[in-house]
Records
---
Amino acid sequence: MPRAAITAVGHFLPETKMTNFDLEKLVDTNDEWIRTRTGIRERRILREPGKATAYMCSRAAQEILDQRGIDPEEIDLIIVATVTPDMLFPATACLVQHEIGATNAWGYDLSAACSGFLFALSAGARFIETGAHKKVLVIGADMMSSIMDYTDRTTCIIFGDGAGAVLLEPHEEHGLVDFVHKVDGSGGEHLRMDAGGSLHPASHETIDKKMHYLIQEGRQVFKFAVKGMSGVAAEVAKRNNLSGDDIKYLVPHQANLRIIDATANRVGIGRDKVMINIDRYGNTTSGTIPLCLYDWEAELRPGDNIILAAFGGGFTWGATYLTWAYDGSQVPGALERQQNTLEEA
Ligand code: COA
């Protein structure tokens, strides 16, 4: 059975930056509080009329097609992880399929909040490993600004917009090795959006009560996130006999720098081996992990042991162990990206 390997990475980030200082003008907060409590300096916001999550996904997917010279007709499957689809249906994956001209692909959306990309990656990998497909696009994207209450200082400071995509292809040696995925629905109440689904369809009342915005009990989520994300990352490392020294990079969901640090500690690695870009993009929900891979691509070499880890609403959480399949420094533009990342860090 071949492995399912990540063989290309693409991204899209809106140009508009919303800094902590911009937020100071909207809510009672300050740059120092946000930086010390979360690690975030600024986030990107999509402010182009008529453009939303599917647009960001299509741009990320197109970057992969262009970079690798792949005909869109070669794509077999598109899985989009998101909690902010353009609409409830058609699925974002269908919109992306049409936009990029992937006329032979099927696809679907997967809703698992901040763990969405990891769960989608596992799903996509099975279609490669079984031989059903040769090219699967897995995209994590969210336009969190569309469900943010910019009068609620406890949530609007955290989230941003962005998309990351990876291509999965069969590989003889490298690719996804193992995963631990979990959900606990009893935590659902702590991080949710109440209206817009079948329980509370949009009405004047839901609008008046601000039920179309994300609600979070930050302290509760923080507690579960630290335990959950660090627990599964340590578990997947242990059962594959990986010590801190064996791991080239930990790629954590970018929710809060303190949660990231706790996870790195538990896995036994220092910050130099952790991909962190929360300072520049905030929490893009499904987008964080592929956006990290994009920024650090030039550092990655065949055989590198990588652990991805996430925690999100639901609750959902998981960790994935994979070995990297290609020399990222050979990808056009990757070294420049890495340089920018280092300079901005
Ligand atoms: N600016 C200034 N003060 C703020 C603030 C803001 N943006 N947001 C909250 N505060 C205040 C609170 O009102 C509280 O004041 P009080 O002590 O007078 O009641 C105080 O700061 C501490 O609030 P608390 O909620 O305990 O802060 P915290 O250290 O837990 O940080 C979060 C808040 C949201 C940053 C943190 O809980 C967190 O990151 N949680 C997890 C979020 C997450 O990961 N979500 C995505 C899931 S994947």
Note: The domain at 177-344 is CATH 3.40.47.10 (Peroxisomal Thiolase; Chain A, domain 1).
---
Amino acid sequence: MKRNIIHIDIDAFYASVEEVENENLRGKPVAVGGVSDRSIIATVNYKARRYNLHSAMPIFMAKSLCPDLIIVKSDMKKYRKKSREIFSLIKSYCKNIEKVSIDECYLDISDKKDPVGFAYMLKKKIHEKFGLTVSIGLSYNKFLAKLASDWRKPDGFMIISEADMPDILYNLDIKKIKGIGEKSQAKLRNIGINKVEDLIKLDEEFLVDMFGKMGSEIYLRIRGIDNRPVETKRIRKSMGVERTFLDTNDEELLKSYLDNYSKELAADLEKENRAFKTLTLKMKDSEFKIRTFSKSFLNPIKSYQDIYKHSIEIFEKNYNKKKLRLMGISASNLVDFDIFQLSFKDLY
Ligand code: TTP
């Protein structure tokens, strides 16, 4: 049976939340991030995007491109709370919801008689209650719904039907396909493959050779095929935080990022009442080479202090002084904290 799936993405999320809260910001270019020149931007509003500002850009660079830029210090607690409120409003209209990030979700609305009307109704309700605009994509699978929501940002609505699919997909640049990283893009462009219409000529084996398991996925996606269900009760196998930043080998700065990530990860674990037994540090250097290092614990951990201490330990042991452009930490081997406490108590 043909499904109807929508992907909802809040526009310039953190910046929009700040604009709604403070009317002095409206109509002006706004960035949310760290406030010092050495820090980077989390996001910018659409006004600031006109100056070519974007996420992960260092503040000093953003200021030089847009001298009138207003920088607001990010407040994760506030954005998390807002995100919970928005998702709970959406959930009151559709239970088949899969949250994929702080500001994005999929809904399976195959049971709704008027999917277009439903999508517009949701846009209106979210705007009325929170003053925020969202972009929505409607299609018959998750991959195309996400592609559609990205198409007409901000405040967009786009439908990709089966009939539209070839025109939209085949013209797409290969960089738009998830799983094709910058290195692979360069290799493909070298052999004259720039668009999906070129990529589609390659057989599955070639793609598997090039991308591993992901190759089969890419093979299907570029043909508009994606059978993944909207998973309403996704059991998370891991939780993590990662960010791209301006290439640096400044160890103090890198450690300060780990400090921030540890706080964020601890807050996420707290919210989901989880602890974990394996911590992984990921480092991507300026040549895009990724290295990961893990450490496992007999007793699960969850506090900011523990996460920070072990992240620093893994970092100090393995950092090779090369300039990094991305770093992340993730928690796996997750355990439910209540169960953990229970079994712990039972033992003593
Ligand atoms: P996105 O959905 O990627 O971006 P956005 O909502 O700001 O803008 P768009 O309208 O293009 O969707 O990210 C959601 C939030 O996550 C964003 O508001 C800030 C945060 N974020 C970071 O902190 N660092 C990053 O590098 C990115 C991409 C996002």
Note: Confidence is low (pLDDT under 50) at residues 339-348.
